[in-house]
Fold this protein.
Amino acid sequence: MPQPAPTLLYAQSGGVTAVINATASAVISEARARKVRALAARNGILGALREELVDTSKESAAAIRALAHTPGGAFGSCRVKLKSLEADRARYERLLEVFQAHNIRWFLYNGGNDSADTALKVSKLATEYGVPLTCIGVPKTVDNDLAVTDCCPGFGSAAKYTAVSVHECALDVAAMAETSTKVFVYEAMGRHAGWLAAAGGLAGNGPDEAPHLILFPERPYDEADFLANVRRVVERVGYCVVVASEGIHGADGKFVADMGTVDSFGHTQLGGVSSFLAGRVKAELGYKVHWTLPDYLQRSARHLASKTDLDQAMAVGKAAVQYALKGMNATMPVIKRTSDSPYRWKIEAAKLDKVANHEKKMPAGFIRKDGYGITAAARKYLEPLIRGEAPPPYGRNGIPNYVELQNKLVRKKLPAFEA
Amino acid sequence: MPQPAPTLLYAQSGGVTAVINATASAVISEARARKVRALAARNGILGALREELVDTSKESAAAIRALAHTPGGAFGSCRVKLKSLEADRARYERLLEVFQAHNIRWFLYNGGNDSADTALKVSKLATEYGVPLTCIGVPKTVDNDLAVTDCCPGFGSAAKYTAVSVHECALDVAAMAETSTKVFVYEAMGRHAGWLAAAGGLAGNGPDEAPHLILFPERPYDEADFLANVRRVVERVGYCVVVASEGIHGADGKFVADMGTVDSFGHTQLGGVSSFLAGRVKAELGYKVHWTLPDYLQRSARHLASKTDLDQAMAVGKAAVQYALKGMNATMPVIKRTSDSPYRWKIEAAKLDKVANHEKKMPAGFIRKDGYGITAAARKYLEPLIRGEAPPPYGRNGIPNYVELQNKLVRKKLPAFEA
């Protein structure tokens, strides 16, 4: 059997976003433009281990274009973290085996901290074994917690969803407050950093505009103080809209709503902060309360994507292919902000070891002194990221025309492997 | 003091929707076109009782136009139900007193069943007292449970939000299912009728497309059967998306997630069905589960309004003014469907006593035989209602440009009244 042409492998990792497929679309389009064969791993690194490789050449140009307006992860993603090279040697070696069998010369791994770490380790092992391979990390996460890059593709759209949804709910509560709901709690994603909760702050400005209180994981949750503030806001404004990060915890470090389960990355699974807070407000203050837990809605709402975010998601995809073909091993295309006003940005290369396993915290100067709101500095940073609209085309049925790929796998060449 | 010109009073009642302000916009525009003075009650019937009447002539034409793309209730709504004419005589008489003091000849009450009932009672009392007053009910409710009308303004947009959100979440879960979330539960509003849960069914078609299971309040919740179905879907498709109505209950009639509180209309306050179901799936089947409770998001998401719904919301507003000026007392403009394909509708007048306190159930033929999905008849009815997009204009800040009215009150002429 003839050796296939030098091949690029793209894989998606971790929680998906409204625009990770836009990155995929840009990767495949750029590879096509450069006449490079592109495969995509089914379900992230798992597909690479199992030799389940999607032949993207079977997809039409229209389908690849439509990927850019389709949320979710078109090739499947996964929550699997490879351990150290020593502890997980068999799996790393299997990856190199699969890559060699399919002449994969460029590996693009689209994910967060953990994925950058995996890409880095694969690259080290390839060097050690003398396998010609260029590994590129491609940034993605709604949590905005990647180091080096000014922001992460996926965050801007989730942030826009959050700001718009908080604003819309607030108008609802304002209309009902006289005789009904007086307190509304919106729960935002963010395990350790309050980036999405902070984005909720863009819904309004000034002390009387919603959200009136934001609870950040960066500040310990002080129930008595929180409840006193809710009461003060209701007495002054007539109602109170609260945005709470899923990751808030008490002074003892215990998550306010710990569901007690752990995912395969070792992250505690959270959820239920909003119902907990609503219960406390109702019990202690007696106000009628409503709450929302948008959960996956906030990271899959492609219908409300930020144009800035979409542009950046596509730019990192395109740059990733360019870096790969230039042999810029163990790098990641990141977003560098060159101006706040007007907002300007460009893509540049960062070394993967500066990104892997670091976590970008929200600057202390982004949280208001009283701990319940965002500062002007936060607004200056956040606002450009939610700017611009990029709605998908809708069908006659009133639903966006999201594409489903064929995802035809190339023929396996190796024995099966228990991934 | 000279008597004011004959005046129209508009009031909003009950839970607000993405398009109730579009109805308000149409009412005020039509009144202006016909040179009729229009006031709006602050916080619904409460404002009428308290003589808190907004002078809509103080609002610019641009503000009234912008109302049509602004969610919430611009004048404030309320959850206050007047009792019978006998039991609540003092309040009904106060209404007539306020109406006479401000020369209110036309009263437009924009709400659901309860509001139609109030408008009808006010109209009866006015007749009894010989007060010249024309009372018009204007339909509004995301629950779609008003009798006579083919559908209710507000429902189509909430239905579109539901269908699009379920579809987007499903793409997320499909991408994650191999190693992470296998079951997702979406909770839809609807106390007694599964209209919004049914709308979730528009997200897909065929047994393998999400949502795979819909739980309707019209069918008793059978836990063993539900869990067996979840397992079958996961084994066949790889994941399972469930849409559950907040109002589902067991064979004994007990709500699955009864929060135990009651609003001023006497309706039980619900919420938490999705977390309950998620907990059962996790405990009994061991699958990783996520869930969402969109709550007010589904009825305030003007950014995702249905164009059909918006057009109907404005049409009933315009017709309400026309009916009022023609003296068509105790009527409601309703939507009559004249054709399914192509979808055509028109506005016609219904007698308020045919609407008041009736509740439109979902036809039995809309629920699939196995109880977990919608039929072709349901699709034929629902699909036109979510058709078309009508996005609001967005600002440079990435948020829709929703308008806030000045809501200047006219001077009171009567002694205060404890409403």
